[in-house]
User: Fold these one by one.
Assistant:
Number 1:
Amino acid sequence: MTDRENICAIEAILFASGGSVSIDKIMSALDIKKAQALEYIKVLVEEYNSEKRGLEIIKLNDSYQMVTKKAYAPQIRTVMDLKRNTPLSQAALEVLAVVAYNQPVTKAFVEQVRGVDCSGVLSSLAAKDLVEERGRLELPGRPLLYGTTENFLRCFGLSSLDDLPSLPEKEGEKEEPLTGEELSALAGEAQSLLDMAK
């Protein structure tokens, strides 16, 4: 296939998938090397960004997804009869910050950091597809481990967890769980990221 045909094939794959597609799957489908696949994706991303289109291609870890541009969310909501997502509570933002910066984590760890029961908040975040179960810890009772999802990255406008704002480092201190004050600051940053991603 020509370069243009490969670019069109990637566009079709991203459109048809409806979700994110790993670079490995794209390479396999087109039987091309990673460098070439990334170059084709770069061209496609530039085309979508430079033209007046209602779609864009975003990167999520080592995957790519075709999504609608946020500017057209009100019109899409009207046609599809979608309700606006309710904002996350302060507690949910704090739990999300603990999970995002320390994953994979147990519910007990999150509760130790926050000092309160987090069962309901973790369930709510899982229902919103912001956190997911990541297996079990090899300890007595085999507690569940939690981590963030691709939807978390999408909602916060991040390409990967490396894009999270860095935590402030305190001189001479060992790595310890976050304090309530630090959690509130992170929750504020998370809300700012959410506001920017809208």
Number 2:
Amino acid sequence: MFEDLFSQSDIFTSYLSGTTTLFIAAFTSIISVANPLAAMPVFLSLTDRNTDSERINVAKKSSFYMFLVLIIFLLVGTYIMSFFGISLPGIRIAGGLIILRAAYAMLNPDASEKKISDEAQKAAKKKEDISFSPMAMPMLSGPGSIAVVIGLASQAEGFFDLLITSVAILLVAFISYSVLRLAPFSAKYIGPTGMNVITRMMGFIAMAIGVQFILNGISSFFGV
């Protein structure tokens, strides 16, 4: 009897550990590539004539659209790729390459092209609503974030894994909302140097994730 109880306890502990590991991996992967801090300067520039309540509304809608975009790709991204005859190993390798490109841009911000060009920023200032474009896409849920989500979906072993990843996406969206909402205050204390340091740290994590995606794709392709 006691042996059965201990056995069940071990199974539960192992299950809980696996769930926690999956959540941390999903959250770290998405937040490092999305990097909401990098969206802060663009957000401040595009909302410089808005009131505080209008800024909060834009931050709320941008984060919601980000969540919506990533959830859609989490649920149907692999099916879209499969429709075009792309295998799961191919999805993982391609996703890893996209993440590596995004990570390189984060590690070398001066030598890399911006997520949004100066011309696009000028055009965005003329728009009445910037929450979906350019804030949600491509600033918060660009190609790198989408690649991460599709890569995670390709490695999911069932509905529960997708649910855990969805919760991670929700947390990233909430953090993105908080970062944008507090942007006027955070920018004063963090400063350009602090933002560069954080962005490079996120870039290193993103690069490691990209490499891991590629290795997973290669090992899956060869059945290793």
Number 3:
Amino acid sequence: MTHSHSLLTFGTWYAGIHGYLSTCVCVFGIVTSIFNITVLSRKNMRTPVNNILSWLAVSDMITMVSYVPFAIHFYILNNPMQLSPTKNNKGWTWFMLFHLNLVNTTHTISIWLCVLLSIIRYAHLRSPARGEYVRLRRLKLSRIFIMSIYISSAVMMTPNFITKKIVEKPTMDNQTVYLIIDDNLINSDSQAAIILNYWLYAITGKLLPCVLIFIFGGLLIYKIHEKTRRRKQMMQISCANRTRLSEHSRTTKMLLTVIVLFLVTELPQGILIVMSITTPNIFDLIYVPLGDLMDIIALVNNAINFVLYCTMSQKFRNTFFDVYCACLCMHTQNESDLPLRQKIDSYSNNNQV
């Protein structure tokens, strides 16, 4: 009881700052996701792995774009711990329902993209692409897999969409607020459909992808050690080959960091969902007080990929500087040329007959 009371106290305290913190993280993440998409979609960056990372950035950006108005309305402009007709009116409750379904879908998309990322990187280490035909074929396959993940994730979340309903609830002062509840709680004495829905989400959206990430992440670690050992045994290889192998190793480590962060973020949520299904009161006493904390951890995970790419990939840094610094330099050059052009135009106009 003491631990549950401490969690409730923490949840109440953190809710007071969650709106401001999550909004800042989302704004940063939206901007950096745009950087990721524009850089990774450049012609010289088009590979199956970068294609997956681009669509991962799209999924993360959708999550954060939806989260900004949600956080501002429900956490900053209104008391997050109280129901009110202003906060919980019909329009904003519909938006909350849309937001929750959208975020659950994009989270599912992102974690399955990480599974695909680990599988494709492992397949590349086992048999590197040789020749333009193989590279283009793998790029095409990656696009098919990505679209399949987007579509199948939406389909997997369909039971969650259709089991939610908005209902009216009168307040003590005869006003009306709107709440989201499971439709089966109204239409049936049995909660079998709700339990099945939670199990489906816990397994397909959390636990199964985490298991696959753990397996292929372990295989990636093994491959990194294997290549490192082989490189030490071949110290006589050329400097160019050593540089290329080192860059491949850094890329693999960067991707491994990305998928491990997803594993650390998503696995505890999956475990808590299973505990909430199987153990009474766990949802109210543990999952709800920690819900906002799990949200901010997931948002930070979405937002920091740009930092990881910049710090761990020289090719990403070079392309980023080529794209954005070139645009900045052109803009600065145009501004510096403007006064000279104005003087020339003024001279011409003042000397016309």
Number 4:
Amino acid sequence: MEKEERNRQLQLAMDLYGKYLVRLAYTYVKDESKAEDLVQEAFIQYYIHLEDFEAKSSVKTYLYRIIVNICRNYLKSWSYRKLEWTETISKWLATSDGPEQRAIMKETSSEVSALLSKLTPKYREVLWLYYLEGFSIQEVSRILECSENTVKTRLARGRRLAKTTFEEGVLDEN
């Protein structure tokens, strides 16, 4: 297939399905900017594999399958999970110059510390090093002298336990 024809087919697909793909991606990631980035990635994949497309389904179906897979992979990615967790902690530890905000920050910081203290050391240390200290999975594995897969597993379980512990604490207060 010639380059001009590939470019024409890509442009046609972008014009016909672009908005729909962004809406679909948004239902997964809940962030319009990220949804647009993922759709752009889907169109790149479409362009790269255009010659492999066998027309067993419509172009629309093919593009939807690509974007669903890209969104699922993104949601499984460590970069997404780290971003999600870091944003949550950042909200908890947001700083401001006002005395009221400093008091709230101090209280929130102690709540986060209390939450982490309820976790077993193997989960607490991994969460602390990864999210609060900013070490990579590889660096955490070296620090704790365990495999990267062990770090990933402890991060996943630690997040789940922290969420459950936090939700139980909120329910107990009500």
